[in-house]
Design goal:
It is built from 13 helices and 17 strands. The chain has 391 residues and is an alpha/beta fold. The longest helix has 24 residues. It binds pyridoxal-5'-phosphate (PLP). The site of pyridoxal-5'-phosphate has 15 residues, from α4.
Length: 391
């Protein structure tokens, strides 16, 4: 008999009833150190006082009015995002997948309205993940995500990761945009080198294409800059954001330049819930903290510490781990043992990690994790690795 929850997830046999900071607690009181942060969502950890305050204060005042009316909190968050980034304008969604939908629509509509309606092609990359909607799976193109869901939305091409020559060769007069995650998350924590991001920007400029960055997982301070592309010194035309921006409240956004977005006029797109007062009140509280240069400097300092300890861990367990990779607090341990076994051994040691493709375990701790917690986390991973070796 089919379970009452559609069985699309492989769930671990764990259930949490409360959280505080980097810790999650089960009903029996067992505490787990959370290096997954709900897959890079709880950027400020669990039950951060500023977010609890923002959410509960807003809950007392107003939950939902729809986008038929002005929304003060939405305006405030859009103004903060525009002030802090390349963007001139923002559309709020409830998830990263919806941000992907709009990014693709915006790119196509841009060329449609500017006299190049044949420009519909989107160049994406193998190993990418942009969500599970029709556009998202067509962009990713992997068999795992697309099998049985055809006909797929046309117009997407996948090229080998970071193969700039292949991108150059694939651009035609029907290409609209290049879509790329600056750091692939689900694909196994694979950063695009800065030089390659710059090369993609240059190709877009040379050919009049739009550069769409998917910063759903790597954005909002995760890499130690507010957005990951800042490390490369480039800016996109369109950017997808979600996960950390809501700190656990479902919230996403598409940020864009005026030039890229100007075809999106009244009636071209919408969302019932996107940009609702609750989500945007929380989003403002997240932005206030994460966009502070001192906060980001602290993320970088802790990221250096975690990385150094993980290099030691990998060296101590060469039978379990192959390498450490990633940027900031978006780190991956490529495993020699099966990554699922390492994640499960972590559960036995009460430390949570997230599996990814390419036999990687992801470490995406709350950006607020402390130095002591980093040390504790690596001790637990050390014991987990010993379990894997002993098994
Ligand atoms: C890079 C990237 N893009 C898009 C998505 C889809 O976001 P959501 O699950 O919020 O729809 C994800 C989710 O993991 C992601 O990591």
């Amino acid at each position: 008999m089919i379970p009452s929850i559609l069985p699309t997830y492989n769930r671990a046999p764990l259930e949490f009833v409360s959280g505080a900071g980097a810790w999650l607690t089960e009903a029996d009181g067992r505490r787990f150190l959370d290096l997954g942060a709900g897959i890079a969502v709880n950027a400020l950890g669990h039950a951060h006082p500023a977010l609890v305050e923002a959410l509960t204060a807003q809950a007392q005042a107003l939950w939902h009015v729809s986008n038929l009316y002005g929304i003060v909190q939405q305006q405030a968050l859009a103004d903060r995002l525009v002030a802090a980034t390349f963007a001139d304008t923002v559309f709020f969604t409830n998830s990263g997948t919806e941000a992907c939908e709009l990014a693709v629509k915006m790119a196509r509509r841009h060329f449609h309205d500017f006299g190049q309606p044949d420009r519909v092609g989107i160049i994406a990359f193998e190993g990418s993940f942009h969500g599970r909607s029709s556009a998202g799976i067509a962009a990713s193109g992997s068999e795992k995500m697309t099998k049985g869901f055809g006909p797929l939305l046309p117009g997407f091409t996948q090229l080998p990761f970071c193969d700039i020559d292949a991108v150059r060769a694939a651009i035609t007069d029907t290409t609209a945009a290049i879509l790329v995650e600056p750091v692939q998350g689900e694909g196994g924590i694979r950063p695009v080198p800065d030089a390659d991001l710059r090369a993609l920007r240059a190709l877009c400029d040379d050919h009049g294409l739009l550069l769409i960055l998917d910063e759903v997982q790597c954005g909002m301070g995760r890499t130690g800059r507010l957005f990951a592309h800042e490390w490369a010194g480039i800016a996109p035309d369109i950017m997808m954001v979600a996960k950390g921006i809501g700190g656990g409240f479902p919230l996403g956004a598409v940020l864009a330049t005026e030039a890229a977005a100007s075809a999106m006029t009244a009636g071209t797109h919408g969302s019932t819930y996107g940009g609702n007062p609750l989500g945007c009140a929380v989003g403002c509280a997240v932005m206030d903290i994460v966009s502070d240069p001192d906060f980001l400097a602290d993320v970088n300092r802790k990221a250096g510490l975690l990385r150094q300890k993980l290099e030691g861990l990998a060296a101590a367990h060469p039978d379990v781990f192959e390498e450490v990779r990633g940027v900031g607090l978006m780190l991956g341990l490529k495993c020699r043992a099966a990554n699922a076994d390492v994640v499960a051994a972590g559960h036995a040691e009460q430390v949570l990690t997230v599996p990814a493709a390419d036999n990687v375990i992801r470490l995406l701790p709350p950006l607020t994790i402390t130095e002591d917690e980093i040390a504790e986390a690596v001790d637990r991973l050390d014991r987990a690795a010993a379990r894997v070796t002993a098994a």
